[in-house]
Amino acid sequence: MIYTVLIIEDDFRVADINRQFIEQTDGFSVVGICHNAADSLSFLASQQALPDLILLDAYIPDVNGLELLWEIRRRFRSIDIVMLTAAKEVETIQEALRGGVFDYLIKPIESTRMAQMLERFKQERFFVVAI
Predict the structure, then answer these.
(1) In what order do the strands lie in the sheet with 3-8?
(2) DSSP state letter for 62
(3) Pure H helices in 3-54
């Protein structure tokens, strides 16, 4: 099984690093990279098959990442979301958790932490499919 991932990150360099890491991880494929909310929502609306996972930065240029999180939740409920951000404020983390994020990774993200999250995602998805 291949899990598809959409990266929403305004920093082109960070987005590419995340893309490379995900594509080197067995069982995952990046289906798109978006650099702002408008492109992200347009991308999602145009897909016949939604991605399984979104890596979402909390700081993107045209909207607060938490606002985008809630909009994605409202319109595309089936997608799991992982926040990737430098935001360490308790309020930001709490709201992301209330929004049902799968995980919350603080930048700079260590490759072992990203690998741990992806492996847990595979395990939990496999468990749900197996039921």
Answers:
(1) 28-34, 3-8, 53-56, 80-85, 103-106
(2) T
(3) 12-23, 37-46
CA angle 19, 59, 81 (to 5 degrees): 55
In the chain, what are the domain boundaries? 3-130
The C-alpha atoms of residue 47 and residue 96 are separated, in whole angstroms, by 25
Average pLDDT per block of 10 residues along the chain, 131 residues long: 96 95 96 97 97 94 91 96 83 87 91 95 76 51
> Residue 125 CB: number of other CB atoms within 10 A?
17
CATH fold of 3-130 reads Rossmann fold (3.40.50)
Note whether 117 and 83 are within 8 A (CB).
Answer: no
